[in-house]
């Protein structure tokens, strides 16, 4: 399964030591140049090292979206990394785009893309037995990644995980 990711899912998974879940769930993971730049400036040295290792081993790849009306339009509404991730996903005919921010998720869906985020990756990992429980992962995201999740969404995801 080919995926393109925005910065925050990679950053958050790296911060909690779960970046490798992407490698086990997806056959190709692409990031655009803007995301590469943002990840290169990650404030957590261990997270930055995990990301650099994945890039060095080639299981996270970089690409540039083509200059297009879609990219121009997305750039009016989103941060550069989000806009480039969605445009690159369209260019690559990706199976999924990994993005957490609500506006980016909505625009990706409008562009015809399947969307998931860090919670979707963790939920799949729980269902596939890659992690024992989802609640501790969410707590870790909050503590280490300063991840915000609305209480109704957390309850929904936890219920979906059977916890």
The CATH architecture can be named as 3-Layer(aba) Sandwich
Largest sheet properties: 5 strands, parallel
Strand content: 5-15%
- Report the helical percentage: 55-70%
**CATH superfamily assignment?**
5'-nuclease
By CATH reckoning, the class would read: Alpha Beta
Low-confidence stretches: none
Strand order of the largest sheet: 3-2-1-4-5
Number of domains: 1
Large-scale geometry: globular
Radius of gyration: 15 Å
Mean pLDDT: 95
Number of helices: 10
Please state the structural category: alpha/beta
The N- to C-terminal Cα distance equals 28 Å
Number of strands: 5
The third-level CATH topology is Rossmann fold
Task: Give helix and strand order, one letter per element, not per position.
Answer: EHHEHHEHHEHEHHH
Structure description:
By secondary structure, this protein is of the alpha/beta class. It has one domain: 5'-nuclease (Rossmann fold, 3-Layer(aba) Sandwich), CATH 3.40.50.1010. Helices cover 60% and strands 10% of the residues. The protein is built from ten helices and five strands. It has helices at 7-15, 20-25, 33-40, 45-57, 69-77, 80-92, 102-110, 118-127, 135-145, 151-160, and strands at residues 2-5, 28-32, 61-63, 96-98, 115-116. The protein has a five-stranded parallel β-sheet. Helix 5 (69-77) runs antiparallel to helix 6. The relative contact order is 0.17. The model has no long low-confidence stretch (mean pLDDT 95).
